[in-house]
Structures are given as C-alpha cells and as structure tokens.
C-alpha cells in the first residue's frame, strides 16, 4: 500500500488536529500511516524558533486550534496544559509503543487525555490513565522508556525528521516530499494517492 510518514510531537498543539483526523482519512484513501513521534524541541531550537517566548503567537495558536477543531467537528474544551512532557517521557513511551505496534492507539489516547481531560503528558497519572486501558504494564513500559534504546530511538527519529527538513509538528512525508502543518494533511494525502495535478508541481 501507499504510505505516508506522520511526524509529530506529543505536546504539539496543532498535532492534536492531525492525530485525531489522520487515521480515518488515510484509511479512506487507501494509504497506510507510519506514526513517527520525534523531538520537535530540538529542531525548533536549531531553527531559532522559540514559541514559548512569543505570547501573542501562543494565544493565537490556541484560538486557531479551537477554530479548526470546530471546522473538523473535533472536541475542544480549553487550551491544554502547555508546555508539557518536560522530560520527554511521554514521547519515549511512544518509542516503545512504535516498537510494539501500538503507537497509534497510545498517541490518540494521550492527546485525548491531554486536550480533553486536562492531564499533563509524561506524568505518572497520564501514563496510568492511558496505558492501563491499553492492557499495558505501566511500570514495565516506563522502564523500557527510560532505557537507552528508547532514548536512542527518539534521537534517530529526530534525525530522520531533520533530514527531511522538518522544523515543526505536525509534518507529513510522502516519498521524500515534506508537508508541514495540519492544514497540509489533505494535500499530503492527495500527493500519496498520486494525483497528477499535484505531482506536476515543480
């Protein structure tokens, strides 16, 4: 099947919109999604992007997410706790989940907990809230996430994002072509289906 690589960060505001939409849209288009969490903080720092210090932009972001959520009939309660996942534990658990084949379920449930239930990502409460219903041993998963292999895999995924020229989350890659932002999800899917009008753009 045709494939789309989905690069995102657990803790990225706009990623919520894509996380909640990409699965059904991709399945309808006959496209498989490779879920690839990465450390967006690293690539943002490398590109001198300091969103935390831009108060007006952050305020705009949450209002924009709220509008787009309404457009796509997605639930939105309030702006979530942000920043979140300070030690990247939630993202390293995603490395464990990716290795085990349950990354999509973990990601969706994590974003629901963060956005809709006010749970900070990476907290013990978050991991218990999300992992237990998925049938996972919380202590065992945390131990794996704290092991060198998970740290290394997160670094490798971040290196992969960098190689594609990704500087923010979410981003989508189709056969080496990079699309940035939730508002490019449909365009990325169209590219993956091989629609010629898009493919002919140089």
In short:
This protein has 202 residues and is α+β, with helices and mostly antiparallel strands. It has ten helices and four strands, in the order βαβαααααααββαα.
CATH topological fold name: Glutaredoxin
Name the CATH class: Alpha Beta
Determine the CATH superfamily.
Answer: Glutaredoxin
Structural class per helix/strand content? alpha+beta
Overall number of strands: 4
Largest sheet: 4 strands, mixed
Mean pLDDT: 94
Cα-to-Cα separation, first versus last residue: 25 Å
CATH architecture descriptor text: 3-Layer(aba) Sandwich
Q: Could you spell the SSE succession in H and E letters?
A: EHEHHHHHHHEEHH
Number of H/I helices: 10
Structural commentary:
- By secondary structure, the chain is of the alpha+beta class.
- It is 55% helix and 11% strand.
- The chain has a four-stranded mixed β-sheet with strand order 2-1-3-4, sandwiched between helices.
- The longest helix has 17 residues, at 55-71.
Q: What's the structural blueprint in terms of helices and strands?
A:
Layout: E1 2-8, H1 15-29, E2 31-37, H2 40-46, H3 55-71, H4 89-100, H5 103-117, H6 124-131, H7 138-146, H8 148-163, E3 171-174, E4 177-180, H9 185-192, H10 196-199
Describe the structure using short key phrases.
202 residues; alpha+beta; Glutaredoxin; four-stranded mixed beta sheet; 11% strand; globular
